[in-house]
């Protein structure tokens, strides 16, 4: 994949390696027993990743934040929350700064080198979004040579070669790729015609188009199946089992589907219990 990047987003590029840690987890990552002994667990959530996590009127809300409130009732210890930008969130879990990445982190082969993931919490198949009424893009082949926006350090960036393969089948090519520190920045540039399309998960794009139907329009899938989940440091098996127990309970009592319908306008009853990514 050949990509060129905008200088104005150099900060995102510098931070990108932190978002997908390549190192194994440090000994400082707390086990479930250690968390119980100290009396609290620290979870990290994103500051602006609608509809999973965001801040409204000064309060955290979204799918994951509502689950977090349920987790606080389920856990036999205090659950503290740190709301931070995406870049650095997963690295913070790998090194033990945070115990859990309570965010919709897409499961990838690279991330599984330093993290373990819970059961998937939603569908994260990648789609493109374009400006409403942009007739220059009516199908995937029309993306050839056009400027793409994507979040720095994201799994979506790592799977752009799938889109590149689709384009090559029709004699096309992947155009310039601009990385952003957050998706709201990418959407703003899309609206201002600084990029031609943005790649994100179907849930995030649906939320965007629902919020701004006169500005944006959903395109087509540009990846195979993909799933997001919460993450803990590699081999932190007891903590992972604790979180999966909670997720299983929420699914069994109908709460999971209820929140999915509330925030995604659909539920995902057939999510796999575990997922081994191809990419």
TrEMBL record:
Pfam families: SBP_bac_3. Residues 40-267 form the Solute-binding protein family 3/N-terminal domain. One of its GO terms (cellular component) is membrane. Residues 41-266 form the Ionotropic glutamate receptor C-terminal domain. InterPro entries: Iontro_rcpt_C, Solute-binding_3/MltF_N. Keywords: Signal. Residues 1-26 form the signal peptide. Gene3D superfamilies: Periplasmic binding protein-like II. One of its GO terms (molecular function) is ligand-gated monoatomic ion channel activity. PANTHER family: AMINO-ACID-BINDING PROTEIN YXEM-RELATED, MEMBRANE-BOUND LYTIC MUREIN TRANSGLYCOSYLASE F. This is Cysteine ABC transporter.
């Amino acid at each position: 994949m050949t990509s060129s990047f905008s200088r104005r987003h150099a900060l995102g590029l510098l931070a990108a390696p932190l978002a997908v840690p390549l190192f194994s987890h440090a000994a400082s990552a707390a086990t479930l027993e250690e968390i119980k002994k100290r009396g609290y667990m620290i979870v990290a959530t994103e500051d602006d990743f609608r509809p999973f996590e965001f801040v409204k009127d000064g309060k955290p809300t979204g799918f994951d934040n509502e689950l977090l409130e349920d987790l606080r009732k389920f856990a036999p210890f205090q659950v503290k929350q740190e709301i931070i930008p995406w870049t650095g969130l997963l690295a913070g879990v790998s090194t033990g700064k945070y115990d859990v990445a309570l965010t919709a982190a897409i499961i990838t082969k690279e991330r599984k080198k330093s993290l373990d993931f819970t059961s998937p919490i939603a569908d994260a198949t990648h789609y493109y979004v374009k400006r409403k009424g942009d007739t220059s893009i009516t199908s995937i082949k029309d993306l050839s040579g056009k400027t793409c926006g994507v979040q720095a350090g994201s799994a979506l960036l790592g799977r752009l070669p799938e889109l590149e393969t689709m384009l090559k089948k029709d004699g096309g090519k992947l155009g310039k790729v601009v990385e952003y520190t957050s998706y709201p920045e990418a959407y703003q540039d899309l609206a201002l015609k600084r990029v031609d399309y943005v790649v994100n998960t179907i849930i995030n794009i649906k939320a965007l188009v629902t919020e701004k139907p006169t500005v944006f329009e959903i395109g087509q899938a540009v990846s195979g199946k993909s799933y997001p989940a919460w993450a803990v440091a590699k081999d932190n098996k007891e903590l992972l089992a604790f979180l999966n127990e909670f997720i299983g309970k929420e699914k069994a009592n109908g709460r999971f589907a209820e929140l999915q319908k509330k925030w995604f306008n659909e539920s995902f009853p057939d999510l796999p219990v575990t997922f081994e990514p191809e990419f």
